Queue: 4 jobs
Job 1
Amino acid sequence: MQSTATVLVYSDNAGTREQVRLATGRRPAADVPAVEFIECATLPAVLKELDRGGIDVCVLDGEAVPAGGMGVCRQIKDEIFRCPPVLVLMGRPQDAWLATWSRADAAVTLPVEPVEFAEALAGLLRGRQAAA
């Protein structure tokens, strides 16, 4: 198992980014690596970090402004070679169809519920480990 996993968190809202960090803790589950975060508040910052490489999972805020996380997800799935798995934060459960349209690998609702979020993130990290 790798020693750390890098998680990119995109939201224009610092409080949402903090919810993600707090829900994850040092590691979302015992069988996945410890997590290091890269926080981005704008789409250009997200694209720059993805071009740099080394991202294991992306967490994208579907409620971010002006570029929502679901649109960003669809864009990076089209444009980034071997795009990392994406966990989308949705404003309401009824937006699950939009998460599917965006090609997100997982989705949870806002506000972040720690157990649900940690399970979803750990699942994506496990899948990433199995593929590596």
Job 2
Amino acid sequence: MDDRLIVALDLPDALAGLQLAQQLGDTVSFYKIGLGMLTGGGLALANELKQDHGKRIFLDMKLYDIGATVEAAVRGLAQFDLDFLTVHGDPHVVRAAKEGAAGSDLKILAVTILTSLDRADLDAGLMRAGDLHDLTVERAARAFDAGADGVIASPREAQAIRALPGSRLIVTPGVRPAGAAPGDQKRVETPAAALAAGADHIVVGRPVWQSPDPRAAARAILAEIAHPPRES
């Protein structure tokens, strides 16, 4: 199994998530569980997939709060023996999360700028002026300096982040197979392009779980990343 592919279980509840994981079987070894499933049994599903099925788990909580609260939340989540946890990339949040994860194998991934946002969205949120690409890379650098084990960034920033001194894990959402609808993502690339740019893992959701044959869709992505198309 190629754990570079992380399938996002962006489904209504844990039962639907478990059914999809059973459909995918041994094709997929790494799953993302996010806020959308938190009240639908997401933590229970994460534990079941990890402990009973031997899957790797990426808990996408994107935590943001004062340091003491983030530290306490991460300390509680670390007891579930999961693999990745996201927090917002502000240095004080990253430092607190690392304190909370101390003594565990949980990797703290810092969110740079969401792949569903563009410069107009940042303007609407009163975010600092500047090129979105440059801001993303700067946030990644600051997160690494604060101790992050990795970052979440669009595939379009992966190459520049990989070139940073002390670069660590790079996980890229906003990945769509060629011809797939972008959905709510605005900065997208294909699986092969994301990995070629320097990503360690790609996150794919709807192109798998919306497919009439999720297992075949996942296998097609895995085939692409195992044998990327040659540049002409």
Job 3
Amino acid sequence: MPKIAIILGSTRPGRNGEAVAQWVLDIAKQRSDAEFELVDIADFKLPHLDEVMPPAAGQYAQPHTFPWAEKIGSFDGYVFVTPEYNHSTSGALKNAIDFLFAEWNNKAAGFVSYGSAGGTRAVEHLRLVMAELKVATVRAQVALSLMTDFKNFSEFTPAEYHVAEVTTMLDQVVSWGNALTTVRTAA
């Protein structure tokens, strides 16, 4: 059974992403075709990228990198829950992604974003980053508006139709995560 991480991609105090990630996890846990785990990048306390060697070399030296690498490497796919800051993802999420290389390779990813424009521009940037890391991104995504899916821009109140969007995105991540198993074992 594939293991899928739901990665909470914000470390900002009072972040909206915490409620969004928990909502996605609650929907995911109703499924029986994969195991799902919430991974909060804030728990790993990664500093600004401080590895001397490029991550593609796989020669990690910093003690904080090893638990992050082990956690990310243990999954078959990912759902990134990302805010949109200045037409992109959060710096904290980009930094966490940049720490690793091989651990991401030949896996699947989906996206749940939020922001004034639904966070779609953050996802556009993440899709480019994922391509470089050899991650297959799925087409379905969930875009949550700060205007309509949050009361006062902070209390998460998603429209009911988003549940079907999450389900479709998870269907695709699980399917692609399974399909890429043969690629990972051949590598």
Job 4
Amino acid sequence: MGGVNGTTGGMRGVAGRVPGGANLLALRSHNTALVLDLLRAADADGISRLELAERTGLTPQAVSKITARLRDAGLVAEAGRRASTGGKPRTVLRLVPEAGHAVGVHLDRDELRAVLVDLKGSVVGERCTPLDLGAGAEAVLGEVEGAVAAVLGADAVPGLTGVGVALPGPLDHARGVLHRVTGFPEWDGYPLRAALEGRLGVPVVVDKDTNAAALGLAVGRGGGGGSFAYLHLGTGLGAGLVIGGNVHRGARTGAGEFGHQVIQLDGPPCTCGNRGCIEALCLGAVARGEIDEAARVLGAGAANLVGLLDIDVVLLGGRTVAAAPEVFVRGVGAVLEGAGEGEGVVPVRVAPGGVRGVAEGAAQLLLAPVFGRGDG
């Protein structure tokens, strides 16, 4: 795949385009994250320091110190005053969404999508271009550079925490090293995180597309204690698992290789080298135009997951699902119901976010830890 040269000139200016002000990485701490997360949830209505203390369990003095630092960093501003039950009106504070940003990049097998999101997770810039993931490291990294530059634009972007990159697995999330990406074995062992950090000059986090999307959904759901499976059907098939509100990556960060469970012995060959994988069966049905059959096969795999993990809900995403959402929801739900795992017990829904859900989740690889969600 070529060496990690790391420093082509085009993007060395990324770090330089981050103006002075909020350094989100320097501000990260458990207590600060608790306060920031409540401020984010409060939206524009704001929340008082007393409420922050009551809901975090921190002392009023600790909250005052934290919010003072956040105000100095430009992350928090006053949102007016609110009447109290006794004494003078309380000042309420709000998060300043535009004070911090992250870039999320989704590397699909044939498409690159990049988004720039603010602290609230709102998309404020987007770029989508064709991509050949098999074109080699230099070509692919060059496309990432160009997309990141495009979404950042010419003006300085305040509080840029870094770039999250999501792509098909398997890969080592902790080290940012790719394994034998299904269909693209030439990427095996490639240090993608180090290569991109060298080029971009900002922190980079790498994860599987399904894990990134699942993280984005978990944060968007409020980060509660729920458990769900996100099934992504596009150019491939995979799963992101959220157990107890946290993304489950496994001991070697390899969990969620859902598409390569064998459900038909001696079935059609799969790009992973096995036969009868659910991915091969699903994509084969899609290629033949048999969408109902693809949904039935996906439902069989979903039933296995529900029976094994006792999850709360199945969320469906990816370009293939987006092209026929009702068919897939109905087909997967019917299989779950027939297996005794559905009918109001385990609902099936289309995941919010649409085709850019993975890219938005990739940005959350950087932002979620700032709010105490996810491990980055």
